[in-house]
Amino acid sequence: MPTPRRWLANMIKLVVLSALFVLLINVQGWYWQVLTLLAAGLSYPLLLQPVNLNLARPYIPQAVAAAKRQSDIVVNEAEHH
């Protein structure tokens, strides 16, 4: 993913995380704060992975092709040795 697009993804994730932690600040009681912080940490991939995948979608075929080429080079080198 190009740098500007990666920067955009990181800014979107920062906004989502900031909003989440602002909501967590308002939770009353240590027990509930720890519980909601744990739930937020566990849901982190569910909230933010779709952002990365959607922004990276146009570049996935290029990455797959590059990985296949690299894999073919490694296999060919191993067969010749």
Description:
It is a single chain. This protein is an all-alpha fold. Helix content is 88%, strand content 0%. It has one domain. Helix 1 (3-25) packs antiparallel against helix 2 (30-56). It is elongated, with a radius of gyration of 20 Å.
Summary of the model, kept short:
The chain is an all-alpha fold and about 80 residues long. The protein contains 3 helices and no strands. About 90% of the residues lie in helices and about 0% in strands.
Strands, count: 0
Largest β-sheet summary: none
User: What oligomeric state do these chains adopt?
Assistant: single chain
Return the domain count.
1
What portion of residues is helical?
over 70%
The proportion of residues in beta strands is under 5%
Nearest-angstrom radius of gyration? Answer: 20 Å
Note the gap between the termini.
35 Å
Classify the secondary structure makeup into a structural class.
Answer: mainly alpha
Shape: elongated
SSE pattern: HHH
By DSSP (H or I, 4+ residues per run), the number of helices equals: 3
